[in-house]
Amino acid sequence: MSIEHPSFGKLDDHRIIIFDTTLRDGEQSPGFSMNINEKIRMAEALAELGVDVIEAGFPIASPGDFDSVKAVAESLGQRDDTPVICGLARSGRDDILRAAEAVKAAKRKRIHSFISTSALHMKYKLRMEPEAVHQAVTDSVTLARNFSEDVEWSAEDGTRTDPDFLCRCCEAAIKAGATTINIPDTVGYALPEDMHRIFTMIRERVPGADKVVLSAHNHNDLGLAVANTLAAINAGVRQVESTINGIGERAGNASLEEAVMAIRVRNDRVPFANNVKTRNILKVSRLLATITGFDVQPNKAIVGRNAFAHEAGIHQDGVLKNAATYEIMTPESVGWTKSNLVMGKHSGRAAFRDKLRSMGYEIGDNHLNVAFRRFKEIADRKKVVYDDDIMALVDDEVMRDHERIRFVSLDVHAGSKSPQRAELELEVDGVVKRAVATGDGPIDATFKAIREIFPHEANLVLFSVGAVTEGTDAQAKTTVRLEEKGKLVDGQGADLDTIVASARAYVHALNKLTVKRLRTEPQALSA
Ligand code: KIV
Ligand code: ZN
Description:
Blueprint lengths: L2 E3 L3 E3 L5 E4 L15 H14 L3 E5 L5 H13 L8 E6 L3 H11 L5 E8 L2 H8 L3 H16 L5 E6 L6 H14 L3 E6 L6 H14 L7 E6 L6 H10 L4 E4 L13 H10 L15 H12 L20 H9 L27 H10 L6 H17 L5 H11 L7 E9 L6 E9 L2 E9 L2 H12 L5 E9 L8 E9 L2 E9 L2 H19 L11
This protein binds 3-methyl-2-oxobutanoic acid and zinc ion (ZN).
């Protein structure tokens, strides 16, 4: 089997195309909205990681989505060596024209059109007869081909679709000129054996299936997204759709880092190659966590803080004698580096930069200066600055430079004598504004001051405080969840002062809300 592909030329049968949808499916998950600068930044990191296709967004969903896809196409898409830039579209004309316009500037571009094919979705969601859906497949792909040679077609809820109808729709898409056929497991229902059966069936029954790239897009509702992805590869799939840290709708998508490392570590059973530079994995994972404010859980495979930590004495002993006793891949192969540097108030800028690098953060000079200044403030007040302190401060401050609202300063009167009072300064769109408010406690006063400076209707639905490390001098890490007209956003903040950390978290959540207000999901997502 050898495929001639408009974007990749002659495809070696052992080559897997890595399609990243962090900026589209990933960004659809609650709280993960990114602004245009953050998307460009992530896209650059993904290109450096070596992914083949970046699905940069869903252009019809909102003006913000359109602008982000266009901006990625105009910046990154100008270079010959960068990934294909892809925009998602439902099957309607407006969607496809909008996606075509958004990716137009990219040298290598793709339009990705989808429609639901399962009986359930067609009847209740689309309210369309199967024949009308079948016709829409032909029409959408035909239209998309006028704007791009590289067109992907997806059968939404494909794994719950009647097999005969699925084959007919795939055939129609191929006839109309689709170059990639994607069968999403939209609701994360399939088992690995289903994957194998479905893709084997398509290869055997659909005319022209051997001339296009087959693709798998798996959701993780049963925790099987990566296992299903590997099963799909072994059934002939040559494109894998995935996201960094496995983010995505509900329980997320197949995690890119897990799929790529499974292929690499178990190449004996999944003998395929891809272009991902695995040493960049941790860096991109950290960047995403920093931008979105969501850390991965400590035991997350590959990129979790504990992924290579050995606690049990027997394990530690084994690893010291020979790391292979308990490590199936080296930490370095995915970007972890060994660092014995203990940071404190005498540590200089160079040591700080080294420390950041060893933790997977690669940040520019401006960000470094800000981070270093915050680090010095913490180091002056704490004997030892732990890795977790540094992660918290980088997450909290450094990546936030494009936000509309910025924390400047806070003075509070707290204690048992009421009223508690907050004097707050925030920078809003470049202008420093000040408010004084009283409340039932210093946090209430602080949040009221924020509301005064930046009026909004959102409700505070969750407020939590934790400690980044142990000890009374630990930084506080706070989470604020705001809700406005059904839209939820989470903000995080860290500081040695709990009330300052709370103000930072609130401001972070508000910034996310200002981005989210511009979006029209989830209606825009129902094809
Ligand atoms: O999960 C899904 O079905 C999707 C499609 C839009 C590709 O994300
Ligand atoms: Zn999806």
